[in-house]
């Protein structure tokens, strides 16, 4: 019976398509969840760096560094990227001796921040490229999630010893 | 924390990636973490206690060398079982884009995945897979590590996305404390004597042995007592090819050496020469020679220049130029103060490559990957005592 094969083929096709769609939707959800986690981690590391910088500023009686750290801690929304870049610039201007505990804390926090920034940027890029896929747009699979935003700051790495740079 | 590491190449065969994986695993264990390494190996092979064998591997020509890999349904089942039993906090795969256990592990994993890219391979060469499949693999990798600037450049330009550059580590103490071979390096004075060293596959053109051989043949008649110590897989006839018979006895050939013999060999030379003409993504052998206290002379390749601190921790010569190499060697063998200054700087530089230092950097990447997966932020204490 040729008609029956037709039905079998159609059912198989429908199953395949729906499996693919479910899987893609799960992929969209997973990526957005990761972007969310990465953004929270990035936020935490920004705060940590600013706090470490404030401690260092008190130690060094550096008014400018303390102000930059305070502004970075308080900045919100669109001002935050500029404030963080200012703090990076202030830290680059500050001589940092890795053997000093307060300086070492700032260097370590900057290193972790550089990693968090990079992972966040990669995840945002992956999520945005998935959102641009025609099928994802057509079926509005990403409608539950806000479009992720890049957090565009300069590489915060300090004290680059040979071979240990980040970017 | 519980760390699962996947090595794509068989541990039965020595190789850079395999050594990297074992050294990293041991350094992490030394810092107090639980580590399990999954690697292709026969079930009855003698392995360190932290290695889980994933079965026999098959040879496959890859990136100019022959790699032994494991791939297929049986391997997939083993990978999944290992992942399920291990309950790892983080999965760390090496060379995930080649058809290998690493790729299988990435596709089977759910949690945070860190990947290390060793070779500076370009996409066209390494990936015979469609862009969609590639994206799928990359999407599952949370954080990427490149062992060299070149490998990282490929990441950024061909694969999209950044990578942290963390170089290969070197077990500094193992090299610094090794006993030189009896009777080496021998006398070295103005105009005479001196020992040169070379280690590697000297039959492979990109290792540049021919450049060193030409320089040696030109220099030896003017420097009585000059000796060349060569180690690596191959035949004596290949070492001697193109060397006049009267100079042949000034060349000592050790053949293939173990890790321990390698350290002793590097302690036995005045000057270690890395005449590579390209293809070297990271100067691993340079850091080992530097740890052993040898003065290094290397081709002016990007990777080598970076390891040698722009020429302050070792002499650079124009890549492939045997005449320039000859003059560099002659001048250096005549100048013990210069050699001492270069090795002193080399010892400082190589500290940044010591395995415990490198392992702590890798742990920071693990922490970042975990944070980006489940959102919990890990603090310094978690990485271990510094």
**Counted beta strands of chain A:** 0
Total strands of chain B: 17
Q: Tell me which oligomeric state these chains represent.
A: heterodimer
What is the residue-averaged pLDDT of chain A?
84
Mean pLDDT of chain B: 81
CATH C-level name of the largest domain in chain B = Alpha Beta
Structural class of chain B: alpha/beta
**Helical fraction of chain A:** over 70%
Q: How would you explain this protein's 3D organization?
A:
The complex is a heterodimer of chains A (167) and B (386). Chain A has helices at residues 2-60, 63-74, 79-93, 101-131, 134-138. In chain A, α2 packs antiparallel against α3 (79-93). Helices cover 73% and strands 0% of the residues of chain A. Chain A has 167 residues and is an all-alpha fold. Chain B has 386 residues and is an alpha/beta fold. Chain B folds into two domains: 2-169 and 354-371, 3-Layer(aba) Sandwich (Rossmann fold), CATH 3.40.50.2000; 173-351, 3-Layer(aba) Sandwich (Rossmann fold). Chain B is elongated, with a radius of gyration of 22 Å. Chain A binds chain B through residues 27, 31, 34, 36-38, 40-41, 44-45, 108, 111-112, 114-116, 118-123, 125-126, 129-130, 161-167, and chain B through 135, 138-139, 142-144, 152, 160-162, 164-167, 306-307, 309, 349, 352-353, 361, 364-365, 367-369, 371-375, 377, 380.
List keywords for this structure.
heterodimer, A: 167 residues, mainly alpha, disordered C terminus, B: 386 residues, alpha/beta, Rossmann fold, 2 domains, 7-stranded parallel β-sheet, 6-stranded parallel β-sheet, 16 helices, 41% helix
Short description:
The complex is a heterodimer of chains A (167) and B (386). Chain A is mainly alpha-helical.
